[in-house]
Write a structure and sequence with these properties.
By secondary structure, this protein is an all-alpha fold. It contains six helices and no strands. Keywords: Membrane, Transmembrane, Transmembrane helix.
Length: 146
């Protein structure tokens, strides 16, 4: 029993750090892939989307699943990632849209910022953040039931 609390602390720290690093990568890849898809389809009325955009969407979705799966290790990963990279920017944009747009200026590249802007103003970033927080809370509740 003596080794269990410290191992939980290590799991929490590593999961939290992983969520903090992987969440913006996953959302960024999703946002950029979505931007590419939207730009290709709306600009050319293409029957098929952009293959790189499709690939990026799949990779981003898998990375986001990875963040959610961190909850099996410790709920800190999805909760920290969801709060820092989804809930806080989403709520900030709801309260002060100008501040949300100012945050977009911190991103490298106009296409990435445009992809994030779509997520930010549509509420998708806020929703993704709350889903990750919910995943973390659900894993905590499931762990406590055992």
């Amino acid at each position: 029993m003596a080794g269990q609390p410290s191992s939980r602390a290590v799991a929490r720290v590593l999961s939290g750090l992983s969520g903090l690093v992987l969440t913006p990568i996953a959302i960024g890849v999703l946002a950029y892939g979505g931007y590419r898809q939207q730009a290709k389809v709306s600009a050319t009325f293409a029957e098929h989307g952009d293959s790189l955009g499709t690939t990026l969407l799949a990779i981003g979705a898998l990375l986001l699943i990875g963040v959610a799966v961190l909850g099996a290790w410790s709920s800190a990963g999805p909760i920290v990632g969801g709060v820092v990279w989804g809930v806080l920017p989403g709520v900030t944009t709801l309260v002060s849209p100008r501040t949300g747009y100012d945050l977009l200026r911190l991103l490298p590249g106009d296409e990435l910022a445009a992809g994030f802007a779509g997520w930010l103003v549509s509420g998708a970033l806020l929703g993704a953040g709350f889903l990750l927080v919910g995943t973390g809370l659900a894993t905590t509740m499931a762990r406590r039931r055992r």
